[in-house]
Design brief:
Blueprint lengths: L1 E10 L3 E4 H5 L6 H8 L3 E4 L3 H16 L8 E5 L10 H9 L4 E5 L5 H15 L3 E9 L17 E11 L4 E8 L7 E2 L7 E2 L1 H23 L8 E4 L4 H10 L11 H4 L6 H11 L8 E8 L3 E8 L3
Parallel strand pairs: 4-5, 4-6, 11-12
Antiparallel strand pairs: 1-7, 2-3, 6-7, 8-13, 9-10, 12-13
Helix pairs in contact: 3-4, 6-7
The structure holds oxa(dethia)-CoA.
The site of oxa(dethia)-CoA (UT7) has 20 residues, from helix 2 and helix 6.
Length: 306
């Protein structure tokens, strides 16, 4: 049994915070943020469950399946609504699902981790898994800290992963180096702490090596990739990684200029943007690749055959 993506949807909060809004309360500027990150504005102000429910509902509609037809919900998130229960429990109830539901925390790599787990569960037993990536990180930043508040924001994206004969998941790579977990962390009740420069350096390396490993597993080379759908953390990280892979920035799907870094939501937000804008077409080979706190990394090679 193989898998393909049968439906998709995304959601962003209404409230916009521009770089100019940030420059009014901290020592930064619109030009600095754009030049160093590519971010112009970000959406904020909703809890993870609200965004996950909205994105999940759109994905169900787009796949034309009812809540009874989902066999498992996997919610990739770092920013759970509560410590307990899982935010997936809230999403399961609000979407009217009658299946198992779990949160997966692999930070910004979480969506790809969840996608691969969904494929494994379909191989084992199920027909359809709803995979959602949602994070609400704006509230976790110290909103006077120019090192983190300029980056992190809120959003959600979802896909329905469905069993099929012709497998669209051609290869993947999942990894973690827990010895570097001190580079990006949040203690209970505290704000995000990040060593930005070091994360930057390691992120590029992780995306390049993980992308190569996933492509190897798929028996493909970078020349076969039609679109890179990267984690949206910093445009310079994306530029540097695709350059090292021998790919061009024109072949990447980016939403970061208007979303900021939405962690586990960022890859599905970019995927939905690529599909809805008509850039991603049936038959295209997609390389999803990301990294995050842990540090984790994850890549997947998908043939787009909805
Ligand atoms: O999802 C994964 C999570 N995290 C990431 O992916 C983050 C990865 N890291 C980054 O994106 C970048 O490291 C940052 C955007 C956080 C920082 O950019 P940078 O180009 O690495 O800047 P830097 O830390 O090397 O700082 C360069 C200069 C410093 O000034 P001096 O020492 O050269 O005078 C900083 O104090 O820029 C200063 N600076 C700022 N200036 C204006 C740092 N942040 C800001 C700011 N506005 N927001």
């Amino acid at each position: 049994m193989g898998v393909h993506i049968a439906g998709w949807g995304s959601h962003l909060p209404e409230k916009i915070i521009t770089n100019h809004d940030l420059a009014a309360v901290m020592d930064t500027s619109h030009d600095w943020i754009v030049e160093r990150t590519g971010i112009h504005e970000r959406r904020v102000g909703e809890p993870t469950s609200t965004m996950a429910i909205a994105a999940g509902r759109k994905a169900l509609q787009s796949a034309d399946v009812g809540p009874d037809e989902i066999d498992l919900l996997i919610l990739a998130t770092t920013s759970t609504d509560q410590v307990m229960p899982s935010t997936a429990a809230t999403v399961q109830a609000e979407l009217g699902l009658r299946c198992g539901a779990i949160d997966v925390n692999a930070a910004c790599s979480g969506f790809v981790y969840a996608l691969v787990q969904a494929a494994g569960m379909i191989e084992l037993a199920y027909r359809r898994v709803l995979v959602i990536g949602a994070d609400s990180l704006w509230g976790w930043t110290d909103q006077t800290d120019r090192g983190t508040a300029i980056l992190f924001a809120d959003g959600g994206g979802a896909v329905v992963v469905e069993g099929c004969d012709d497998d669209a998941l051609l290869g993947f790579d999942l990894g973690c180096d827990g010895t570097t977990r001190h580079l990006l962390y949040t203690d209970h009740g505290a704000k995000i702490t990040m060593e930005g420069r070091e994360i930057f350096r390691r992120a590029v390396r992780a995306m390049v090596s993980s992308s190569r490993a996933a492509l190897d597993r798929a028996g493909l080379g970078t020349e076969d990739v039609d679109w890179v759908v990267p984690h949206q953390a910093n445009l310079r990280i994306i530029e540097s990684a695709v350059d090292k892979l021998g790919l061009s920035l024109e072949r990447t799907i980016n939403v970061l200029h208007r979303t900021g870094n939405t962690s586990a939501a960022s890859i599905p937000l970019a995927l939905v943007e690529g599909v809805d804008s008509g850039r991603i077409q049936p038959g295209d080979i997609l390389l999803l690749t990301g990294f995050g706190a842990g540090m984790t990394w994850a890549s997947a090679v998908l043939r787009w055959q909805p």
